[in-house]
Specification:
Layout: E1 3-9, H1 14-22, H2 27-34, E2 37-42, H3 49-58, H4 62-65, E3 71-73, E4 84-86, H5 97-103, E5 108-113, E6 124-128, E7 140-141, H6 145-153, H7 166-170, H8 174-201, E8 206-211, H9 213-221, H10 234-253, E9 257-262, E10 266-269, E11 272-274, H11 276-282, H12 292-303, H13 305-314, E12 341-343, E13 349-352, H14 354-358, H15 362-370, E14 373-374, E15 377-378, E16 380-385, E17 401-405, E18 409-411, E19 428-429, E20 435-438, E21 440-446, E22 458-459, H16 463-470, E23 475-476, H17 485-488, E24 495-496
Helix pairs in contact: 8-9, 8-10, 9-10, 12-13
Amino acid sequence: MRKLFILGVDGATFDLLKPWTIQDHLPGFAKLLNEGCHAVLKSSIPPLSPIAWTSIATGVNPGKHGIYDFLLKKTTNDSEQPYFTFATGGDRKTKAFWEILSEAGKSCIVVNMPCSYPPDPINGIMISGWDAARDKAKAFHPKQLYQEITKEFGEYYMVPIDILSKREMASKDVQSNQRLHEALLKMTRLRRRVLGYLAKKYPWDIYFGVFYETDIAQHRFWSTLAKGAEADSPIFHVYQEIDFFIQDLLRDFGDEIDIMLVSDHGFKPLLTGIDLNSYLDQQGFLRRKISIKGKLIFVLLRHFKSLRRTLKSVGRSSWLPERISNMKPRHMNIDFENSDVFFEGMYPYFHVLDKGKDRDIIPKLLQSLAKLEYKGQKVFKKILPKHDVFWGPYVDQVPEIIGILNDHFEVAGAEVFMSKLGSKDNVFLDHVWEGNHSENGVFIFRGNEARREQMETINVFDIAPTILAYYDLPIPTEMDGLPIQDVLGNREVTYSDYNIYKDESVAGT
């Protein structure tokens, strides 16, 4: 049985890769493209990293794996008081392909997979991705691997904030951009070394390693691409570092391994940010609180994370709103008791409150959102009820309405990225980013049985079943994807009723 190395490149797009490989700027990527098959890899809905990578790992949609955004609403006894947490691998309801392969006796290495903390106790090695940034030592399996890696390489960086200040991340001035450029290269070079070190030192049947620095570079520096690849573009420099890793991988392992390259989504230029709660306010779906105390708390929580930690440690106080330590600062000026709908997340999810449900406001909401335009361009392709997008036993945890954005728009999901956030009169806002996610990602496969051709578009759901079939394991019928035959050659594809859910009492629907 041959080994399979899966290389994840967050946000990789053929819009950049194909011109750069044709111009001989990226010989490693070019070798994979020229010696294998490739296809556009259609991202998840929405095309956000935690959803798309989790769908790649599990072969199912958010209604089954449970991760629908960066921020997940938690169930509480108070339906009118929002409580959100940052999505982590612990929120994943279904098994990833590496868990299924591990159960089958395969040796696995998984490194830097987004939304994968805590690490799974697999047969092999796992280092969690950016959701483990606060608990680095706990992000390694087995536990002693953390000491080994830090002894060998020094500090292990998971996110740019490990190197930069919050101000530098939120600023577009020349010095901050230069610092971010340097940080991304430092992180990518470290990732190269760690991935290569583990690949050569430890045994593995399957290896899944992800570079996510491309995503940040494209978000922040998209305008630099107008100067050409040979110019001083941080985006190209990050891709070049990954290309060096591909060259190293081909040199060290040659034809002993097959290589699959995937991205979770593609990229396009960003036109504007959108403050959806301001729009809901203007349209009469949301009401604001006018409170000096609320405004003070809003400012303090927004700017001082340490205060939030202090509030959590001391518990509630009579002058504080319920669960204030868990509330997002942008919630502090929303009157939830008298509102119908509010937006929360990094994508247009609309939470319909009890008052709105009683008034049956959804048809009016859909009509209102469909009218939202920016300089003559519609903001939304579609606005849909969740059951039109997702299916499975956990679909009820997803907010009631999802707006499918047209390319070039980004919502005000994180205050740090927006200017004038929270101003009632501003719906369209400046954003520190220049690039934004698009649905067309990248799939490349180089192997003994791979055809040298461009295939039809495939889906992120197709990756996990293809990997299982690659190792001659039956594909669970509950998976939403289909095996990619151009990868599998003459292998026989079989299916089983294997329960993919971590909670064994849950049955598929």
